[in-house]
């Protein structure tokens, strides 16, 4: 039993089934990320003054990631066009670069995440705040050691990156100098995870969900490129459709990042 | 290797090899435009326009342009069938409704403050 | 013909038991799987309600017979002994769990899977002449997501802290701070919802693609049965409205497990201690994202039932439905407007009057197409020769019941009157009238109607009428009094049935305290008994359903109801691939009693015999 229009297009709509299917799915994804972007705007507009950071993230890395994804999008569409021109070798090359780009993107993202988890904010009993990257080599439990940190007067001072000329230095803070938690569960030491602020929370959720989509898209593209490449020999039209549909998903992933990058990194 | 069945191309039109080559050029140009747009966004973000609103608007305008390029050319939306257009148009409308109506219900401009 | 005819099976051997009945990609099998699973969940949700109503009507008294079992399941934190020492008193927390899960299960695990997953899957491809859904394997996956989501929800009853207890609406901050176990029932609720949402999204993509692409030759849009239009719009609602709730669910999950505060405001204090979170979040944000789905969801609940009722009314009045075109435009307008009315659930949150008026306006507007559909169906009865079959009885009852439910929504839609009625029993009565004697009656009608197509036998007629009569009486007995309780000011979600707010009559010495009268509070007991009777009234239905599989009166033909639509032009039951020969459609869906024709119905696929086109027929593509 054959499902009609799985490969051939239906005359009155001009489309094959999977194309409509993927666009419908992308419509639902627009609503998903749209709701998250709306949440971002609301959380930001209603944030208390002095609690929303600016340029907290590494703009260079973000820009590199943007370029990487744009390149992968170009590769995907080159790959599809090559298939239309019956050039399977070229398609294999372009799609391979796409997968490589996906891996680079995820690698940079992991590095950025780890960087955040190594960044600590430590309020002190004298009212100032020590802030910076933890020195993991320190084993002395009487001290909290920063490999590159600074001490600022208030939390609001942490909302901007260190001004040009300010050097970060190694700091060793005695535990006794660190403020205690109000609920009695130890010292007030917190790293820059999603729990730290609304900004970081929405950053991790948005980029985390996006990264899951990168992984999913890359797996599908890889599966079609690798294990399922035999379909090119038996049913080339169906194969081209699959490449096109997975390509559409990949472009959408790129599209989301095109908005994520300025919103989270630059504004 | 089977003969290419380009006449029955699955994108709903019959694209000849020459047309596909033309498309490759378009894709490459759009790709370069996107890279330039990225550089532009970064550069504009660090300019002090006086009010942050202008930075935000500039960033969103550039991002939207890049978005249109990706959607229009890479995703072929510019030559896509009306059905797909109408689905995406509805979606964008509902997304806009979600964003603007929620914002409008919750900003300090409303009678009761959120906090 | 007696024997079901066989479609030309190509070259496949018979699949084994697992492939055929468990891991099937056939839309009919998947539809039945959805149907049975959904009915089981509906029964479970009904039992939760009975337990709740017992507690409301008998505050502090042990549940009869089930006390020890409840203790075993829920533990001594939730179940205690009453004054006489009998085990089985439902605690306030447990009551809240029952309430939250009753709502969640009924909406997401019972009614929508039955209306959309079961009927939609089984009937839609048949009515459009398709061999199956556009994406059969995606269809199977959507059912599997549904089952996993349902199991996660059920499992939540057995974990420390019990199931979610912050309402089916899961409002923050209560949803995050109400139960301090990690993970807790709320975590399971969110994970279950994510599974269910994904199931619905896959289903929606499938339905829309199928209806657009797989309509058979000649079946243009204005020749579609209204049922298909209803499922089409429902699919769009699910597609575009669910993702914001999935996003919100992810955010609330982060609040729950990662210590974020998307929905927790700054300075929140729980049990005297400041909560150690970053703050800066907004409880209102959750409400907006939830109700953005929540409102289209209620149209998801009603539209398929409207579709089913329309098919049955046309078939049993032997007339075309009046105003088919208006109904189609109305359902499209309902679909569109349903996205921009959601904050009428939030009138009491302090929105400005301008935005509240906007939502009030759109809410009033959306009542218009709903009334058009209801009126069209009512007018369809005029001058009809009605066959009072069991499906028709349910379909007829749907009309006034949905009418009551819809009309009682009007005072809720106006923001001023809603200030008084919000979160009272009036709201409960309003939405239950729409879903219980509304949608569920439509679904019962559909079960009795399509049972002969799926099984080749009729359900027993007498017991069907008993099921109908008793259900109708007891549904009204349960929900009608609730309007009065609500108008008296009785709040919903009170585990003691409102006793805290009982009035204290004035005496010589004191002026008394105004509150709920003994009459209003006293209504809780008869409502409980009506609910028990409603449950008993389902027993004939359940027995009838299974008994008729083997012993029901066999159908004499493939089209026992003498219906016009393509779903009745298949062999019985329809084989894999559905149709014995390629179908083509020549006319609209409700060509009943066409003047000059020999029979009182003309099927959609009967070839034209050089007759001029009938007036109501449209040949636009």
Blueprint (SSEs and pairs):
The complex is a heterotrimer of chains A (267), B (115) and C (621).
Chain A: H1 17-45, H2 59-84, H3 88-117, E1 119-123, E2 129-134, E3 143-152, E4 169-174, E5 190-191, H4 198-225, H5 231-234, H6 236-266
Antiparallel strand pairs in A: 1-2, 1-5, 2-3, 3-4
Helix pairs in contact in A: 1-4, 1-6, 2-3, 2-6, 3-4, 4-6
Chain B: H1 17-45, H2 52-74, H3 82-106
Chain C: H1 17-22, H2 27-57, H3 67-74, E1 79-81, E2 87-90, H4 92-128, H5 136-155, H6 174-177, H7 185-213, H8 226-257, E3 269-270, E4 273-274, H9 283-317, H10 324-337, H11 353-380, H12 390-407, H13 410-413, H14 415-421, H15 425-455, H16 461-487, H17 518-522, H18 524-551
Antiparallel strand pairs in C: 1-2, 3-4
Helix pairs in contact in C: 2-4, 2-5, 2-18, 4-5, 4-7, 4-8, 4-9, 4-15, 5-7, 7-8, 8-9, 8-10, 9-12, 9-15, 10-11, 11-12, 12-15, 12-16, 15-16, 16-18
Contiguous runs where pLDDT drops below 50 for at least 5 residues of chain C: 1-10
Helix/strand-derived category of chain A reads alpha+beta
CATH-assigned fold name of chain C: Cytochrome C Oxidase, Chain A
Report the end-to-end length of chain A measured between terminal Cα atoms: 54 Å
Q: What is the number of helices of chain A?
A: 6
Specify the CATH homologous superfamily of chain C.
Cytochrome c oxidase-like, subunit I domain
The CATH class designation of chain C is Mainly Alpha
CATH topology of the largest domain in chain A: Four Helix Bundle (Hemerythrin (Met), subunit A)
The global form of chain C is globular
* Mean pLDDT rating of chain A: 93
Strand sequence of the main sheet of chain A, in spatial order?
Answer: 4-3-2-1-5
What is the chain-wise order of helices and strands of chain A? HHHEEEEEHHH
């Amino acid at each position: 039993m054959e499902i009609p229009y799985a490969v051939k297009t239906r005359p009155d709509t001009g489309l094959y089934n999977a194309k409509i299917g993927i666009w419908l799915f992308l419509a639902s994804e627009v609503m998903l990320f749209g709701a998250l972007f709306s949440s971002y705007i609301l959380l930001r507009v209603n944030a208390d003054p002095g609690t929303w950071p600016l340029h907290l993230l590494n703009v260079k890395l973000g820009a590199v990631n943007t370029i990487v994804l744009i390149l992968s999008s170009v590769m995907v569409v080159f790959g599809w066009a090559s298939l239309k021109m019956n050039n399977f070798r070229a398609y294999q090359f372009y799609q391979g670069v796409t997968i490589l780009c996906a891996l680079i993107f995820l690698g940079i993202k992991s590095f950025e995440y780890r960087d955040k988890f190594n960044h600590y904010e430590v309020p002190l009993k004298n009212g100032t705040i020590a802030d910076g990257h933890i020195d993991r080599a320190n084993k002395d439990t009487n001290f909290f050691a920063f490999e590159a940190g600074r001490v600022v007067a208030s939390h609001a001072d942490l909302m901007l990156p260190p001004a040009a000329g300010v050097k970060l230095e190694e700091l060793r803070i005695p535990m006794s100098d660190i403020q205690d938690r109000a609920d009695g569960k130890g010292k007030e030491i917190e790293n820059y995870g999603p729990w730290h602020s609304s900004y970081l929370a929405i950053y991790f959720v948005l980029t985390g969900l996006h990264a899951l989509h990168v992984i999913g898209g890359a797996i599908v593209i890889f599966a079609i490129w690798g294990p399922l490449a035999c379909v090119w020999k038996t049913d080339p039209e169906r194969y081209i459709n699959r490449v096109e549909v997975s390509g559409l998903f990949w472009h959408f992933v790129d599209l989301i990042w095109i908005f994520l990058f300025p919103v989270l990194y630059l504004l | 290797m089977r003969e290419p069945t380009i006449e029955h191309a699955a994108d709903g039109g019959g694209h000849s090899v020459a047309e596909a080559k033309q498309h490759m050029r378009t894709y490459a140009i759009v790709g370069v435009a996107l890279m330039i747009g990225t550089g532009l966004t970064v550069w504009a973000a660090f300019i002090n326009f006086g009010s942050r609103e202008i930075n935000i608007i500039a960033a969103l305008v550039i991002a939207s342009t890049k978005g249109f390029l990706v959607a229009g050319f890479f995703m072929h939306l510019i030559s896509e069938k009306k059905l797909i257009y109408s689905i995406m148009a509805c979606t964008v409308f509902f997304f806009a409704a979600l964003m603007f109506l929620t914002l409008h219900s919750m900003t300090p401009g409303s009678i009761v403050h959120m906090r | 013909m007696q024997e079901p005819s066989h479609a030309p099976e190509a070259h496949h051997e018979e699949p084994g038991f697992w492939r055929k009945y468990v891991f099937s990609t056939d839309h009919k099998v998947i539809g039945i799987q959805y149907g049975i699973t959904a009915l089981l969940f509906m029964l479970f949700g009904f039992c939760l309600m009975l337990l709740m109503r017992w507690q409301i009507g008998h505050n502090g008294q042990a549940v009869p017979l089930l006390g020890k079992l409840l203790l075993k399941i829920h533990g001594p934190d939730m179940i205690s002994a009453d004054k006489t020492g009998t085990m089985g008193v439902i605690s306030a927390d447990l009551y809240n769990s029952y309430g939250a899960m009753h709502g969640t299960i009924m909406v997401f695990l019972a009614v929508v899977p039955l209306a959309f997953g079961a009927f939609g899957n089984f009937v839609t491809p048949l009515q459009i002449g398709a061999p199956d859904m556009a994406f059969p394997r995606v269809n199977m996956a959507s059912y599997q997501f549904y089952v996993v989501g349902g199991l996660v929800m059920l499992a939540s009853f057995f974990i420390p802290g019990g199931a979610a207890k912050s309402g089916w609406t899961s409002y923050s901050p209560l949803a995050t701070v109400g139960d301090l176990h990690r993970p807790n029932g709320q975590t399971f609720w969110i994970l279950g919802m994510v599974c269910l949402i994904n199931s619905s999204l896959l289903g929606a993509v499938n339905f829309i693609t199928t209806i657009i692409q797989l309509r058979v030759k000649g079946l243009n849009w204005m020749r579609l049965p209204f049922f298909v239009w209803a499922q089409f719009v429902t699919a769009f609602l699910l597609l575009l409205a669910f993702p914001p709730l999935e996003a919100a669910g992810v955010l609330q999950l982060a609040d729950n497990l990662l210590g974020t505060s998307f929905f927790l405001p700054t300075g929140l204090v729980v049990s005297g201690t400041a909560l150690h979170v970053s703050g800066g979040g907004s409880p209102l944000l959750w409400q907006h994202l939830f109700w953005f789905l929540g409102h289209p969801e209620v149209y998801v609940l009603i539209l398929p039932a409207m579709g089913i009722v329309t098919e049955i009314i046309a078939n049993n009045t032997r007339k075309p439905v009046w105003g088919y075109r208006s109904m189609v435009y109305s359902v499209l307008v309902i679909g569109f407007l349903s996205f921009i009315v959601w904050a009428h659930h939030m009138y009491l949150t302090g929105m400005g009057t301008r935005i509240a008026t906007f939502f009030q306006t759109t809410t009033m507007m959306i009542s218009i197409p709903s009334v058009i559909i209801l009126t069209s169906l009512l007018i369809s009865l005029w001058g009809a020769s009605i066959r009072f079959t069991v499906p028709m009885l349910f379909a007829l009852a749907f009309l006034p019941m949905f009418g009551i439910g819809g009309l009682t929504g009007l005072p809720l839609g106006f923001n001023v009157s809603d200030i008084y009625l919000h979160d009272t029993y009036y709201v409960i009565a309003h939405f239950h009238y729409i879903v219980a004697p509304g949608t569920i009656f439509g679904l019962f009608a559909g079960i009795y109607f399509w049972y002969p197509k799926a099984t080749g036998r009729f359900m027993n007629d007498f017991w069907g009428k008993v099921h109908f009569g008793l259900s109708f009486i007891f549904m009204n007995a349960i929900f009608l009094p609730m309007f009065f309780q609500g108008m008296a000011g009785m709040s919903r979600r009170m585990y003691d049935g409102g006793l805290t707010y009982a009035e204290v009559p004035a005496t010589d010495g004191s002026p008394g305290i105004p509150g709920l009268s003994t009459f209003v509070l006293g209504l809780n007991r008869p409502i409980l008994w009506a609910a028990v009777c409603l449950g008993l009234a389902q027993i004939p239905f359940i027995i009838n359903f299974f008994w008729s599989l083997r012993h029901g009166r066999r159908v004499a033909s493939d089209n026992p109801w003498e219906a016009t639509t393509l779903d009745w032009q298949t062999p019985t039951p329809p084989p894999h691939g559905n149709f014995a020969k390629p179908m083509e459609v020549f006319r609209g869906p409700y060509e009943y009693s066409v003047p000059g024709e020999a029979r009182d119905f003309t099927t959609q696929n009967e070839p034209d015999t050089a007759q001029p086109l009938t007036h109501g027929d449209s040949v636009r593509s």
